[in-house]
User: What shape does this take?
Amino acid sequence: MGNFHEMEMRVVYAQTLNELIERNPDVFCLEADLGKADASIPVVSERHPRNFINCGVQEANMIGIGAGLAREGKIPFCSTFTAFATRRCYDQITISVAYANNNVKIVGTSPGITQGPNGGTHMCFQDLAIMRAMPNMHIYSPADANELRAVMFYMAESRQPTYMQLVRLKMPKIFEDGCPFDPNRAKRLHEGGDVTLVATGFMTRFALDVARELEKENIAVDLLHYPSVKPFDAQALIQSVRKTGAVVTVENQNIVGGLGSAVCEVLSEQHPVRVKRLGIPDKFGEVADQDYLFDKHGFGPDHIARACRELSPSQL
Amino acid sequence: MEAQELTREQLDSLAAEFRYVVTDAICRSGVGHIGGVMSLVEIVITLYYRIMKVKPEDPNWPERDRLVLSKGHAGPIVYTALAFKGFFPKDWLTTINRNGTRLPSHMDQILTPGVEITAGSLGQGLSCACGLALAAKLDGKKHRVFCIIGDGESDEGQIWEAALFAAHRKLDNLIVICDYNKMQIDGRTEEILDLEPLVEKWRAFGWETFEIDGHDWDAIYDTIQKADAVSGRPAMIIAHTVKGKGNRETEGLVDCHNVKIPDETTYQRLMCGLECKFDLPY
Assistant: This one.
């Protein structure tokens, strides 16, 4: 127990699956030949071989197997890279999982630019957007190891078709072990009245650094972290915006259709204010490291800080 | 309910009645997949009346045999069997594809009692059937999983993904029937995308593979029994069928996949093309 933030998130994922299987033997780990990349090989495969099913390189079939298992009361966690977990088998997820309301958990690993060396073919910038457009689907993107565990405990108990982004890397600690998760609640990580900053998943740690850094410039950032992009906690956003009057969103995704779009949908109908969306500006990925891609597309810490400055009252 | 013994005459009469009722039911919605429904009549009757253990009064009875209609567009023939077996009132058949129906032409596990798996987007049902069979294996349960796929559906890569998977996992509780009527929407399968040699393909994928006349009562029944006895591998029954079977207006015609019934004249022509007349049960 404890110290999960000192581990890679993928190891935390696999170890937490073991815990879930030990609590409920109906939990299953399904892979499509990326078990080693996800650490479920050997963590789950050796400890719980009955509950570990490697489908081979068959993402579409894996989703169907998951749907069939779920129909019989099992709780399958089907994992592969985000590109293959979502866009490659989008119709299988739509019909066999969401439309049929089968209780399948889909885990997309290495979201967005965290695909790094695998480059443009593997960098999926649209999973939040396309999964958000699917009725019946919940979408979670935990920001650190402790929140990942909270989200997984919730997923194992809920009867809800769910997609979760999983950053495989080690992530700095934001939340305490045993932290709560409620898909209907955003988390305020920094309180301020100048500008609302909205983040999820991989980008939340950078947003938090920026919010703390901007204190030195007397810019008070109201940072909302959304572990659940759908359902989306509209109330927390509107409450914050009533104070600040302006929003910056940042996501490890295309700015078309993802978190920023969710924010704009809520605000344009309920409380129109200025919104600046940071993320990938409708481009494909490429082989490159994080800093290069942050700079190229303008959504790293410096860009977040600049956008917050520009939208804070002293600048308007 | 235990499987019943019906005489050959009773089976023939039931098949004719199913064809009459399902044609009428489809006609009421103005358009429907008559061709691929009619080719499955003997197979579906054999499954529900001679093979499968089901309890209409308890559709989710845990020990039931499961049927997945992966070629989900043939839903109306399974609905006819479910209605005749008592899963729901027969007059539901008059609502097929009408506003607010619980019987959409493509199978829906949420809406319809007795439907195991939602299907319609081709290729997906077989994967789901593998999941059902795997779950039974994991839990040491004895029920069987039947799955009906189409020949046109076999163009889908997902069918062959599932074929690999089922053989690898030795799902010998899975029996799949391919409705090989040799026609798909745009034409004959040999012209659109040839499946041959189909039997050899399934054998090469590691399946115990049988080949039958899909309208021959004894062949269907005996072969399913043989398939059920297979150990260590899944079973495939390639059933040679005739699209639109049993109606002079549709039998063997490429254009009978999705038939439009825009007016009373067309309806009368289709109903008169059937072998016998029956009183409608609704």
